[in-house]
Write a structure and sequence with these properties.
This protein is of the alpha/beta class and about 500 residues long. Among the domains are: about 170 residues, Rossmann fold, CATH 3.40.50; about 80 residues, ACT domain (Alpha-Beta Plaits); about 80 residues, Alpha-Beta Plaits. The protein contains 20 helices and 18 strands. Strands 1-2-10-7-8-9 form a 6-stranded mixed β-sheet, sandwiched between helices. It has a 4-stranded parallel β-sheet with strand order 5-4-3-6, sandwiched between helices. The chain has a 4-stranded antiparallel β-sheet with strand order 12-13-11-14. The radius of gyration is 25 Å and the shape is globular.
Length: about 500
Amino acid sequence: MPNPYIKKILKARVYDAAIETPLDHAPVLSKRIGNKVLLKREDLQPVYSFKVRGAYNKMAQLSEEERKVGVITASAGNHAQGLALSAKKMGVRAIIVMPIITPSIKVDNVIALGGEVILHGDSFDSAKQHAEQLSNDHGYTYCPPFDDPDVIAGQGTIAMEILKQHSGHIDAIFVPVGGGGLIAGIAVYIKYLSPETKIIGVESSESACLKAALEAGERVTLSQVGIFADGVAVAQIGKHTFAVAKEHVDTVITVNTDEICAALKDIFDDTRSICEPSGALAVAGLKKYVQQQQCKNKTIIAINSGANMNFSRLRHIAERTDLGEKREALLAAQISEKPGSFRKFCAALGNRNITEFNYRYSHSEIANIFVGVTTDPRGDEKAGLVSQLIASGIPVEDLSDNEIAKLHIRYMVGGHNQKPNTNELVFRFEFPEKPGALLSFLNTLGGRWNISMFHYRNHGSDFGRVLVALQADEEEKPEIIKFLDEIAYQYWEETDNRAFKLFLG
C-alpha cells in the first residue's frame, strides 16, 4: 500500500507560485571529484528558495475561513518569503515572526512581498514560540515552516521533478536539513519509486538536530545552535519530519563553516550564482561523503536550496573558503629572535605562497610568528610542511582548525599581556547584530570585571563575534559562568586556547 504522502505529493498545488527548477550538470566539480554531479537549482525560485513550494501548498489546503482570519508563521527567512508570496497571490494577510538574527535581505523581501514582519528572539525556536502565542491570542491560522504534512508534500514535488528530469540511475541525493521538511518530502517520494537511491541528509555541525535524534532514537533539543547557516539553525527536528526521516533517510553527514564556504565557491565556479550558507550545505556534504567513501563514477545530486544572503557576508566567506578546501594552512611558528632567523624560516617554507605573515617583537629570545601558507589540497601537503619545518629546527603548530585563530587572532597578533602575573579568563561570544548591539553587550557585561583584552570585527553578517579577556581569578569563574548564562549570549571559554596563549596570553 503506498505511503499516504505519495498521494499528497502528487496532488500538491505549488506551481501557481513556484517554478520547475532545472537540474544542472556541474562540470567543474564533477571533473575534480571524479563523479557526475547534478545541482537541483532551487535557488532560482521566485523567492530564491524551495520554501515557496511548501508554503503555497499549505495555504492552498486551508479553508476559506482559515485564510480570512490571516496566516502567521515563524521563519528564519526563506519560509517567510514563500508564505508572503503565497499570501499575496491569494489576497491573504500574512504575519511573519522572524529571529532578530535574520539577514536583512530576507526581512526586506518579506516586507516587499506584503508580509507584516515581527522580529523576536535570537533563534528560530524563540520566534516560533512567539508566533504560536500570537496565533492563540488573535486567532491567526498558523502555517508551520516544516513540521506539517502539507508543507512536506509541497517540498516533495522537488523529488517528482528530479525523477522526471533524470531518467537514468541516481546513486545518491544530498539534501540540506534544518527542521526536516525538505528531506522528508524528497525521501518518501524517492524511496517509493527508486529505493536503491540513497538519501543523505546534510546538517551544519552547529545545528545537527536530525543526526542527534537518529542517534538517540527520539527527537532531542540541542542546547546550543550556531547561526552561520541561519536557514537551518533549528534546535529540534520536527515531529512529522522525524517520523519520515527515520524510515527513509540512509544517513546524515555534518559539515563545518569552512566546508560550507568552500562549497559556496564550488557552486559559483559552476553556475556563477551565489547561494546562502544553508543553500550550499548539500554540496559540502556531497564532497565530504565522496572523499570519505572514495566514490568514483557515481551520479549524485545536491539540492541547492536557497540564495538569500546579504552581499556583505561574502568577505567573511571568502576568507574561510581556502581553509575549507584545504588550500591554506594557518601555522604558529617559533624562531630565534636574532638576525637571519626570518630568512631561515622563509627558506624552510620553500616556494610556497605566503598568504599572510604576522609578527611583533615581544621576547628577547623567541619570536612567535602567525603565518598563512597556500597548500595543495591533493595529498596531505600541510602535514608534510609541518614535518619539514620541525625537521629544520622550527617548532610549529597547526592552527587551521582553531576557531579563535581564524576569527580573531589573525587580526590581533602583537598584543601580549605585559603583566604576566595578571590572571585572565578568555571567552568567545556570538550575539545578534543590530543597532546598539555592541554597546548593549558592553553595558550588560558592565564593570563587574576589568576587560583586559577585547576584539570585535564586523564580518558582514547579522551576528557579532567578540573575543574578551576578563581579569579574574580561577575561583571567580563559577560566578562569571553564572553571569554569562544569565545574559544568554552564546559563548565558549577559550582561556586554554593555544592560539591565544602563543600570541596574546
